[in-house]
Amino acid sequence: MDEVRKGIFVETKTHGCNPAYVITSDGVVVIDTPQLPTKAVKMYEEAKAHGAIKYIINTELHIDHIFGNYYFQDVEHIISHQATFDGFMVPDPGFDPFDYAHDAIPRSDPEGEKLFPSREDYFANPHKPDITIDGDATLRVGNKTFQLIHTPGHTPGQLAVVIPEDKIAFVGDTLFHGCQTWLHASNVDQWLESLDKLLDLDVDIIVPGHGPVCNKQEIYVQRAFLMEWVSTIAVAVGKGWSKEKCFKEISFLDRFPVDIGQEYMGETVTRNNINSLYDKLTVKMPVMKKL
């Protein structure tokens, strides 16, 4: 893991999100956990070497941010937004998050197979959050302040974590830096508002959910890309294109490839993004009430 500020370590070069840990004068705070078992165990051991792990903060409910909680069994508390708690490892029709986590093992972490739990063992204690918030909150641990800011859009329970003493923000999947954005479960209007909120932060370093560590300039890039996705599908709808034609004609993978370890999912992510936006943009608009 790379030390991006003194005592703040981030992993950006492996399959899944960018997990991190912060050393304070009163123990360690982990921000998201690795999806892959070997990476989770390694990060746990490395963080634990610096003191007791006081908190995990999960910035959202997607598997690459939460599955590794299972390997941090003696952490004191886990914090998330209430919406993340409500959706924690909950299956959707046609999608099982446990199976999805296991599917990555042969391809991205073959050594992790022996560490991967059975379904029964996992759900006996998946290490869900035990502290939830509904909006913004402030957590103080030793000499560090952790400002938790609700930034919905990518998911309803999205959180950013700001450490003002170090002028650093962990913004989760509100920002995909240099890689494809996942829109399938998103509310783009909320997402754009949350990006504007991040622009107001007094920070020098941004840790995105995916991609290299960056600065606030990348917030403008993310905002532009979201707007490009929406406008591209809106224009296609205006031309009368079917979803199938959109699938054939629209792709941004040449400029924004899928993140490390998920290259094989490029077409799937593109189709999911198109499918989500197309459905939203072809719904009849509500009739405006007269003033």
Summarize this, please?
The chain has helices at residues 37-48, 63-66, 82-86, 97-103, 105-108, 119-124, 188-199, 217-238, 243-249, 266-281, and strands at 2-5, 8-10, 20-24, 27-31, 53-57, 77-81, 131-133, 137-141, 144-150, 159-163, 168-176, 205-210. With 291 residues, it is of the alpha/beta class.
CATH architecture of the largest domain: 4-Layer Sandwich
First-residue to last-residue Cα separation: 57 Å
* Element order: H for helix, E for strand: EEEEHEHEHHHHEEEEEHEHHH
Main sheet properties: 7 strands, mixed
The tally of strands reads 12
Principal-axes geometry comes out as: globular
Category by helix and strand content: alpha/beta
What is the CATH C-level name of the largest domain?
Alpha Beta
Count of helical regions: 10
* pLDDT averaged residue by residue: 95
Give a verbal description of the structure:
With 291 residues, this protein is an alpha/beta fold. The protein has helices at residues 37-48, 63-66, 82-86, 97-103, 105-108, 119-124, 188-199, 217-238, 243-249, 266-281; strands at 2-5, 8-10, 20-24, 27-31, 53-57, 77-81, 131-133, 137-141, 144-150, 159-163, 168-176, 205-210. The chain folds into 2 domains: 2-223, 4-Layer Sandwich (Metallo-beta-lactamase, Chain A), CATH 3.60.15; 228-281, no CATH class. The protein has a 7-stranded mixed β-sheet. Strands 8-9-10-11-12 form a 5-stranded mixed β-sheet, with helices on one face. Helix 7 (188-199) packs antiparallel against helix 8 (217-238). The termini are far apart.
Write a concise keyword list for the protein shown above.
291 residues; alpha/beta; Metallo-beta-lactamase, Chain A; 2 domains; seven-stranded mixed beta sheet; five-stranded mixed beta sheet; 10 helices; 12 strands; 33% helix; globular
